[in-house]
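Hi support team,

I've been running sequence recovery on a batch of backbones for a student project. Most finish fine, but this one hangs at about 90% for roughly twenty minutes before it completes. I'm not sure whether the input is malformed or the queue is just slow. I've pasted the C-alpha cells below so you can try to reproduce it. Let me know if you need the job ID as well.

Thanks,
M.K.
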C-alpha cells in the first residue's frame, strides 16, 4: 500500500493486520511520520520509482492488491501549488499504475474523494451524481478516476475507487491519528481549540444554502473507513464481477449529513464544555459539501459504517491527549 505512513494509511494497515493480512508499505515520508509505520514491512521511496516498485514486487511476489493512498491532500495548498499536486497525485500515479500492470499486479484500490461532487439540492449524492471538483486537489482525484477507468478498459488493470467522505477520529488503540502540528481537518482544529492550542475554532463559510448556513459533510470514523478497505481487498474480484465492469466507484460514508455547527455541538457535548468560536469566509476551493448515498457500499461491497460521530470525537480527543507520547509534539 502506498501512503501507509499517513493518517488513513496507518489505520488501514492496522485493520488489514487484524483481518489476517500483511501490509507492505511504500511511502516517501513527505508528510506521514515514520513512527506510524511501526515494524511493518516498509520501503521509503517514490511511487513513480519504477525500479523500486519492481523490487517491492520481486521481494513480495504474493502481493495481491495495491491500495493507493499516497497523495497531497490539503485543499488551500493545492490552490497555491497546483503544479506540485498534479505532479505528485497524477503524473506519479500514472507511472505506478503502468508499472503495476507491467508487473502483473493488476488490482488497484484507489483513494478518491467526495470533494468531486457537484452541489446537490438535497446534499445527498450517489456514485452517478454530477461532478464539479472546485480545487486542484479535487481535480487531481477526478483525473485519476478517469485514468483508472480508461486503463482498466484497455489493459489488465482492475480498479475499485473508494470515494471517501470526511474521515475523523483515530485508531482505536491510539497508535496513530492526525499528525500535522496544525491539522487542516475540522476535527483536528476543534481539538486544538479545546486544548487551548488555538484561541478559537474558526467556522469557514456561514452563508451556505444549508439548514444553518455552514458546510455539510458526512463524517466517517477513520476505523470504519479502514474496515471498508479490508472488505474491498477481500472481495475485490467479486465486486467487479457483480458490477460487470473492469472498474467501479463506491461511496464510503455514513449516509448522514452533519453541518459544521452541528459537529461543533456534538463536540461540545462529548468534550463537556463550550469551545471558543469565530467565523470567517470560505477558504479557497471549499465546497458546500454533501453526504453519501451508501446503498452501493451496502449492496455491492457488503459494508456499512458502525461507529458514531460521538465515537469519533471521543477517540480524537483521546488522541489529542496522547499524541505527544507517540509523535513527540502536541
Amino acid at each position: 500500500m502506498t501512503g501507509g505512513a499517513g493518517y488513513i494509511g496507518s489505520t488501514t494497515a492496522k485493520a488489514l493486520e487484524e483481518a489476517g493480512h500483511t501490509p507492505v508499505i511504500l511511502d516517501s515520508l513527505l508528510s506521514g511520520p515514520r513512527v506510524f509505520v511501526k515494524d511493518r514491512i516498509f520501503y521509503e521511496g517514490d511511487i513513480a520509482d519504477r525500479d523500486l516498485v519492481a523490487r517491492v514486487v520481486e521481494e513480495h511476489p504474493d502481493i495481491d492488491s495495491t491500495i493507493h493512498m499516497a497523495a497531497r491532500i490539503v485543499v488551500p495548498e493545492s490552490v497555491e501549488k497546483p503544479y506540485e499536486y498534479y505532479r505528485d497525485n497524477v503524473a506519479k500515479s500514472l507511472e505506478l499504475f503502468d508499472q503495476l500492470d507491467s508487473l502483473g499486479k493488476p488490482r488497484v484500490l484507489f483513494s478518491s474523494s467526495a470533494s468531486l461532487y457537484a452541489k446537490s439540492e438535497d446534499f445527498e449524492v450517489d456514485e452517478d451524481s454530477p461532478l464539479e471538483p472546485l480545487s486542484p486537489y479535487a481535480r487531481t482525484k477526478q483525473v485519476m478516476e478517469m485514468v483508472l477507468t480508461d486503463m482498466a478498459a484497455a489493459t489488465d488493470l482492475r480498479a475499485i475507487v473508494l470515494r471517501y467522505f470526511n474521515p475523523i477520529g483515530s485508531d482505536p488503540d491510539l497508535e496513530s491519528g492526525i499528525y500535522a502540528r496544525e491539522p487542516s481537518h475540522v476535527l483536528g482544529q476543534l481539538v486544538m481549540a479545546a486544548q487551548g492550542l488555538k484561541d478559537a475554532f474558526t467556522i469557514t463559510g456561514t452563508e451556505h444554502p444549508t439548514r444553518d448556513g455552514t458546510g455539510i459533510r458526512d463524517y466517517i470514523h477513520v476505523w470504519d473507513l479502514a474496515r471498508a478497505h479490508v472488505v474491498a481487498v477481500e472481495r475485490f474480484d467479486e465486486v467487479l464481477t457483480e458490477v460487470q465492469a473492469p472498474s467501479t466507484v463506491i461511496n464510503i460514508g455514513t449516509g448522514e449529513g452533519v453541518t459544521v455547527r452541528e459537529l461543533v455541538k456534538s463536540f461540545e457535548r462529548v468534550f463537556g464544555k463550550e469551545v471558543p468560536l469565530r467565523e470567517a469566509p470560505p477558504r479557497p476551493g471549499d465546497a458546500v459539501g454533501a453526504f453519501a448515498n451508501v446503498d452501493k457500499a451496502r449492496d455491492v461491497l457488503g459494508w456499512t459504517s458502525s461507529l458514531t460521530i460521538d465515537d469519533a470525537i471521543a477517540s480524537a480527543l483521546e488522541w489529542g491527549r496522547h499524541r505527544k507520547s507517540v509523535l513527540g509534539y502536541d
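--
Follow-up from support: It reproduced on our side and the slowdown came from queue contention, not your input. The two ends are 28 Å apart (CA to CA). No action needed from you.
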